[in-house]
Amino acid sequence: MSIADQIKHFHSIVPQDVEIVAVSKFHPASAILEAYDAGQRAFGESRVQEFIEKEKALPKDIRWHFIGHLQTNKVKPIIGKTSLIESVDSSRLLELINKESERAGVVTNVLLQVHVAQEEAKFGFFPQELRDYLDSGRYKDLKSVKICGIMGMATNTDDECRIITDFKLLHDIFIEIKGNESYDLPDFKRLSMGMSGDWPLAVKEGANIVRIGSAIFGQRT
Ligand SMILES: *Cc1c(COP(=O)(O)O)cnc(C)c1O
Asked: Residue 30 and which of 36, 76, 160, 188 are 20 to 30 A apart at CA?
């Protein structure tokens, strides 16, 4: 199937209330334009330099989701260019995004990344670490970031039970935070989980953003 056909296919099978982010990292601008012409508007990038170049060259109504690990020294160039930074994996990074957003006169939408997978290599707050941070209330002073929900990844495995367990855990944490009025997070509505290989399970467990790369664009080289 062509990229355009994949876009149409995914929009026909993913429920309407779930946002599809087409993960275009490592793929050229021409591939993004093909998806764009088929109606896709939300794209995911994971590297700062690549994102900056694509953002400059491509249509302004694209909603860019930054989904990669963000080093603190690379925050500034992406501020004002993203629709959602999904991969905020530390309080330090959140505070820095706030500071740079304030300087730029913008409010940046973010998701907090939660680490539930059985792999050390992944980033994110551990569930208890996230609870402790939210309990501290420190984020309430950050007026130039809007915390819109959480993002997570399941363990990279063929074991469906493991994947479902990971997604259920992410969903439980999402519901717990959303339901805690003392956190005072009115925009906390988004649960981003699921990729090409596991998105149907993620949607079943309550995801309202899925991040699909290789199933749309083919293998990354
Ligand atoms: C690369 C990436 C994806 C997309 O992965 P595919 O398996 O190609 O769909 C989704 N989320 C994150 C955080 C990624 O880095």
From this structure: 76
Between helix 48-57 and helix 29-37 the angle, nearest 10°, is 50
**Which pair of tokens denotes residue 164?**
């479902």
Q: What span, in angstroms and rounded, lies between the C-alpha atoms of 142 and 97?
A: 9
Q: Are 106 and 143 in contact (CB under 8 A)?
A: no
The answer, yes or no, to whether residue 221 has pLDDT greater than 90, is no
pTM: 0.97
Using 50, 70 and 90 to split pLDDT, how confident is the model at 220? confident
Does ligand 1 lie within 6 Å of residue 212's CB atom? yes
Distance (angstroms) between ligand 1 centre and the Cα of 46 equals 9
132, 123 in Cβ contact below 8 A?
no
Distance of alpha carbon 116 from alpha carbon 162, whole angstroms: 11
Candidate of 6, 7, 27, 67 to mutate for ligand 1, largest count of ligand atoms within 8 Å of Cβ: 67
CB contact at 8 A, 204 and 212 = no
Tokens at 33, concatenated: 């334009």
